[in-house]
Amino acid sequence: MKYLNYLPILSLFFLMSCGPQEKSVEEVLENGTQAEIEQKRKALNTTMLELKNKIKKLDEKLSGFEEDYAYALVEARELQPRAFKHYIKILGEATTDENILIYPEFSGNLKDIYISEGEEVKKGQKLAKIDDGGVSNQLAELKARRDLAKTRFERQKRLWDQNIGSEIQFLEAETAYEQLNNSVKQVESQLKKSVIYAPFNGKIDEIITDQGQVVSPGQTPIFRILNLGEMYVSANVPENYVGSIDVGSEAIVSFGAIGKTFKSEVMQVSSNISQNNRNFRVKVAIPDSIDFVKPNLIATLEINNYKINDAIVIPEDILRENAQGQSFTFALSMESDSLGVAQFRELKLGKSYQGEIEVLEGLKASDIIVTEGARTIKKGEKVKVLNFQKN
């Protein structure tokens, strides 16, 4: 081997380093006896054999280094089927169906407000009273007239049942009573609108109109009431995902503004596709345990639209493309625990998510793929595997 060229130099170095008690070759040749010359020769032969053995070991070690440099160095992993999920990412916002402005149904002066801003109220609770402008007095008068008409009607009915009096008198009394009774009901209904009640359980988020102001139906908002216990995220999904997202689909919700991320599920999918943006609407539930969520808070949604239990999945960054735009990578045919031959594998790919991609065709379970160094090797090249992840 080439390292033997250094043997004379090493021998000379050894001889020069011998202690002074030993005679040099020149001294033995000049003054030594035959026995001393033979002894010196024998000693040098022994030393030379020892040096050859040491040099041989050094050569073997150096050959190992040369072998490492002769092959491309890669890392590899054995493939095994595993679960794979794909999610679509869209923006949405927190909302609730119970977030409304309360308008009066009666015109007049806002006489009394019975609650304060931020107060929790129950459905049907009295919130405010509008001055009825004399309608209550009108109602009292009508009730008195109705009561009198009722008495007349009942008396006329008794006489009619005894065949006393005329039929026309009975019918007139009956009609008068019914008309006044209907008038009382109408005024009662009108008067009831002068009181504002809570439409559902919730919080008075804002008192918009001050006490003493004149209010009008449909024009003057008085309160904003909302129920934060019934909130959800609403989002628009492109129509090409119709059929892959349904009620119960897994969703990951992130509210960046409050630093909250949680898992949930789709609670409703719209049956209508908007003609304006070709989207359909989904609702994703927000658990009651998530604090600080307010209406219109922006959310990022990741909704699961595809999942498979036994998928072949590889890192996207090991993919390469040929001149025809076809994706490929390299698998290894192992010759030993650390040496293998790179095999070209053309791939048919599926969905990708978070740096991983599903392989539909081209690889199978137990194949060994190159995970690091794939971009520097060629088809049929022998490589050395430094890190081999076996399943």
Automatic annotation (TrEMBL):
InterPro entries to which the protein is assigned, alphabetical: Beta-barrel_RND_2, HH_CzcB-like, MdtA-like_C, RND_pump_MFP
Coiled coil: 34-68, 139-190
Tagged with keyword Transcription: no
One GO term describing the cellular component: efflux pump complex
CzcB-like alpha-helical hairpin domain location: 137-192
One annotated GO molecular function: efflux transmembrane transporter activity
Keyword Glycoprotein listed: no
Record-annotated Multidrug resistance protein MdtA-like C-terminal permuted SH3 domain positions: 310-374
Keywords, ordered alphabetically: Coiled coil
CusB-like beta-barrel domain ranges (all copies): 233-304
Family (UniProt): Belongs to the membrane fusion protein (MFP) (TC 8.A.1) family.
Protein name, as recorded: RND family efflux transporter, MFP subunit
